Amino acid sequence: MDHVVTCFVRNRGEVLLTRRSERAGTYTGRWAGVSGYVEEENEKAEFDARRELREEIGLGGASLRLVRIGETLAVDDEEGSFVVHPFLFESTTREVRPNEELAAVEWADPTAIRDRETVPRLWETWRRVAPGVEDVREDRTNGSAWISARALEVLRDAAVDADDWESVAEVGRELRDARPSMAAVANRVNRVLATAERRPEAVAAAAVRALSSAHAASEASSATLVDRLRDAEVTGVATLSRSGTVSECLRAFDPDSVLVAESRPEREGVDVAETAAEETAAAVTLTTEAALPAALADGDVAPDAVVVGADAVLPDGSVVNKTGTTGLALAAREAGVPVYVVAARDKIRPTGDDRVADEASPAESVYDGEESVDVFAPTFERVPGRLVDGLATEDGLLDGDDARRVAAEHAEHAAWDGRDDED
């Protein structure tokens, strides 16, 4: 039985589908991921996966990040007997160079697999690497824009596989409650379930549209902030923690300098600093939260503006973000440096919801000794609105009245779960 890899490459919520040419040898004319043989028995399948990605579509190195390796599955038909090793990679680019084994390539939502003539069990292969509710609940590395996109993928796939509305609704409830600190997760799930017809196929289609809109909102929010920074003639920025929208802003703005706090205890800011050094021409400085006040007063690294993301924006204008943000904002106020929050409208909490959820970092990430030492390591904190100079969204810079109107819209969508008796 031959062992093969099937690689799904994802970008902006879509995956790269490939149509196999006559040079592929098997399943000619059918759609697949990027696939190939595990060439040596002792080789790791990941090695073969990365080789096939380089050879078939010209992707590799920093442009690809391995997200998941799925459980294998067996295929046995007239073309042969295979053990399939599924992989999911995230790509920073859609620029690919197909080789002669591919007759066509297309970026498409994974649900397109269901409507095409594909290699055997391709949808099942996708499901073995696709995100699940637990991924949304347990992710402590990525920001809320990323995690809310994964929640929409979970809802979409659940709807595709469901036979009835209630089973889709149950997954929606799990997702809605999975990350109480991250408003975008609940808001985006609520909007889909509040506006789509109560049929699984309608929910799946609405989730696909919502996923596309979510990525567009992040880009537009970043553009709003970039315009503001350019108007203010900013040359250096400071940030902390990880925000995909902030990283997008840094790539587009390309400042002269970037100051990044490492964001203890998980230190996700280290990756942000490395990415900024790789993707921009900026002089990048990594520091600790404790050193931020000194850094903001140091002429060599002091920024002209602070730029942070948000896990939620409360109806009163305050912001929920990674612990350390309040200290940075206070230091910025003392130094006369403006603080901008970049966040899509979906990060504004519904009217009446002003929670700051208790999502503590793992205690062992702070102290793993044997003494009786308690650990206090909250992941998020509330930043007073008075310390924020602007909220950059896809609809421009919002003020308090704007935020309250958006919060009212989200509250209306959040009521979907109480309307079951209407149908």
Reconstruct the topology from this structure.
Elements: E1 2-11, E2 14-20, E3 31-32, E4 34-37, H1 45-57, E5 64-69, E6 73-77, E7 80-91, E8 102-108, H2 122-127, H3 133-138, H4 144-161, H5 165-178, H6 183-195, H7 200-231, E9 236-240, H8 244-253, E10 257-261, H9 268-279, E11 283-287, H10 292-297, E12 305-308, E13 312-313, E14 319-322, H11 325-335, E15 339-342, E16 380-383, E17 390-393, E18 396-398, H12 400-414
Parallel strand pairs: 1-7, 9-10, 9-12, 10-11, 12-15, 15-17
Antiparallel strand pairs: 1-2, 1-4, 2-3, 2-8, 5-7, 6-7, 13-14, 14-16, 17-18
Q: Summarize this, please?
A:
This protein is α/β, with parallel strands linked by helices and 423 residues long.
Structural features, described:
- The protein contains 12 helices and 18 strands.
- β9, α8 and β10 form a beta-alpha-beta unit.
- The mean pLDDT is 93.
- The strands form 3 sheets. Strands 1, 2, 3, 4, 5, 6, 7 and 8 form an 8-stranded mixed β-sheet that branches. A 7-stranded mixed β-sheet has the order 11-10-9-12-15-17-18.
- The protein starts with a strand and ends in a 9-residue tail after the last helix.
- It has 423 residues and is of the alpha/beta class.
- Helices cover 37% and strands 22% of the residues.
